[in-house]
């Protein structure tokens, strides 16, 4: 078995909180020059690659790669990608907790957790790296771009596996809050289990026959007229799990653009209808310090503002 070669530290600094792209030249194929490989490998015109090499923008462990540098099997290269034009997310990301190991932030709706697709420098990770001057920051878990609430990040690279393992091994108690239609005929609380599959490139996840791979506890916390505020406790963490389970119960979460039907794409600068789903709390034992942590979001869902004097129609026990 071939031993995996550990990548050396990047010789390029981050740009706007984003790491440089890293490439490793294949060892089982050979080109005459590094340029020839990059022309084959990168989805950009050869003229762009020539400009990058001419400017010294492609860097190896020994410094900038010359335009005529011979191919070196197994060598590592780094360069900075061109970022897409992004619409700034016009909401702050609030830090609720910071110690030597962790940052816990209150993420707004519409902000991606990590760089992806059209959301790169405006992601929560990139913004926190810049605002807190923490270039080694990394996410401990996933949170949908459209979902607001608690997002946890790891400061030290040597602790990433420990904190990410908490989520992978289901040792974090997560509680969400959602606003959805109120159905008096729906028997709650209940535990929903189903098999959820999401195919790459398909926007929505589907419930399919087969052994369950997802489980959510659904409780009605409060009602106001035709709306209910729900407390959702996921046991597993499948993509769109809570949204799929609520839709399957006939009470889809308000302002969901995918469930029960896919709505027309909205402009990236349209922040008018946030998904009414909030990651409300996280509770776990710190794997590094042994401390008991419980964090709670300070955000409120706009479809369920704080009462202005009148009580809710009914508060569930």
UniProtKB/TrEMBL annotation:
Boundaries of every Pseudouridine synthase RsuA/RluA-like domain copy: 101-246
Catalytic activity: a uridine in RNA = a pseudouridine in RNA
Coiled coil: none
Domain of life: Bacteria
Protein name, entry field: RNA pseudouridylate synthase
Taxonomic source organism: Kitasatospora cystarginea
Phylogenetic placement of the source organism: Bacteria, Bacillati, Actinomycetota, Actinomycetes, Kitasatosporales
